[in-house]
Each structure stands twice: as C-alpha cells, then as structure tokens.
Amino acid sequence: MDSAGYTSLTRQSGLKHEMQMVANNIANVSTTGFRREGLVFSEHVKALQPGEPSLSMGTAHTRHIDTAQGPLTQTGGTYDFAIEGQGFFMLETVDGPQLTRAGSFTPSAEGELVAHDGARLLDAGGAPVFVPPTARSVALSADGTLSADGIPLTQVGLYMPADPNELSRREGVRFAVEGEMVPAEDANILQGFVENSNVNPIIEIARMIEVQHAYQMGQKFLDKEDERIRSVLQTLGR
C-alpha cells in the first residue's frame, strides 16, 4: 500500500474513535456529573527520499476532558451537593483516590458520606466526611463547611489536577489523575443541588453527522485506491 493508503487508514481509525466518543457523549447527556469528552488529533510528518514529498499522517493522539460547568438542578436533598466553578469532589475508591462532579451522597451505617457504590467522600484534609447518625439537621455552606445541628464538622474537599490534561476517565463519571492534585479555588458548593451533564446534544449530533460524512468520504477514497492498485497489477501481469 502506498503513502496515500496509509494516510487514509490512520485517518479512518481516528474518525472511528471520534465517532465512538461522540456516541458516548450523547448516551450520557442525562448522566449527573458527566464530563464531555473530545479527541485531539496530531500530525506526524516524515521525510522520505530526496526529491520526494514528505509523508504526513494524522492520528487520534489523546482524549480531552471538557471541564466546562454543567447546568444545575435543585433537588432539595440534604446530601446532594453541586460544585459551582472549577474543581472536583474526591472519593476514596478501591482503585485509589478518584475525582468526580457527581455529588449525590448518602450516609453509611457508620455515618460516612458515600457514593452509590460505597466510595467515601473525602474532606479538605483527605479524611472521610463523617456525619453523626444522631444529627437532626445538616447544613453545608458555600465554602464546603459541613455542620450538624449548628456545630461545624469538617470542610468538604474540592480538588483539581495541576495539569488539566492529566485527567484520565475511569468508570462513568470518575477520573484518575496521573500527576499532582491541588485544592480548587474560587469554587462554591451548593447543598440541595446536583450538576447535570455538560454535553450539548445539538452540538454532538451535528459533530456525529460531520464525522460520519468524513468517514464515508475516506472509505470511498480507499475503495478507489484499491481499484487503482488492482488495475495496475492486472496491467503489469499481462
């Protein structure tokens, strides 16, 4: 296969990955705390023989997590928390600490606030957030200070990666950070709210159509290249 064929194949592979990513975004348009994902392409240029044009190949290089604010929905739930601004909640999971924007928690039998699978919510010091089972009223201030019956208990931690590109998606709405994590600044936590997905379905559907058309055009080109090569081989073989 010549350079045009290799270039087209790498492009088709990247478009296929992008289509899968767009489809996943659309599937999670109603998932609380979901962050939209995009694909970053990179171009690799290689010099060939003297006098020949260079070979350029575009590949799907890495995934990009969109950290834009999603719309908030009021639930009135005591343990429903939503972040207004940058930052993530930190959870203690079986796979280590992970970040999330999904803020629906429930108190465990021991009084620790946990996610749906039992992952514990951590405070600003990295310790589990504890609410006494006997507490009659629980309030959360904008700075994350959690109080029970008017007595401050702890401050819910907000974290973010030092480098936003080091966010790596794990299960659903959770992320691992390959590098350093730092406290989030200039962010508020709202009690009785949850943050919705930041996916815009209209934009994603439009992008899906664009990617589909680009993929079909690439496939037509590969088909014509195949016909051309077969024709050359048949002519030379006579």
Quickly list its features:
238 residues; alpha+beta; 2 domains; five-stranded antiparallel beta sheet; three-stranded antiparallel beta sheet; 18 strands
Please provide a written account of the structure.
- The chain has 238 residues and is α+β, with helices and mostly antiparallel strands.
- It folds into 2 domains: 3-67 and 199-236, no CATH class; 72-195, no CATH class.
- Helix content is 26%, strand content 32%.
- The protein contains 2 helices and 18 strands.
- The chain has helices at residues 3-27, 201-236; strands at residues 37-46, 55-65, 72-74, 81-84, 89-93, 96-100, 106-107, 113-114, 120-121, 138-140, 145-148, 151-155, 159-161, 167-169, 174-177, 181-183, 188-191, 193-195.
- The strands form 7 sheets. A 5-stranded antiparallel beta sheet has the order 9-5-6-15-14, with no helix packed on it.
- Strand 14 and strand 15 (174-177) form a beta hairpin.
- Helix 1 runs antiparallel to helix 2 (201-236).
- The longest helix has 36 residues, at 201-236.
- It is elongated.
The residue fraction in helices comes out at 25-40%
How many separate structural domains? 2
Estimated radius of gyration: 25 Å
Order of strands, main sheet, comes to 9-5-6-15-14
Task: Count the E strands.
Answer: 18
Please state the average pLDDT score.
86
Beta-strand share of residues? 25-35%
Segments where pLDDT lies below 50 for 5+ residues? Answer: none
Largest sheet: 5 strands, antiparallel
Helix-strand topology string:
HEEEEEEEEEEEEEEEEEEH
- Derived from helix and strand composition plus strand pairing, the structural class reads alpha+beta
Number of helices: 2
End-to-end gap? 21 Å
Shape: elongated
Oligomer: single chain
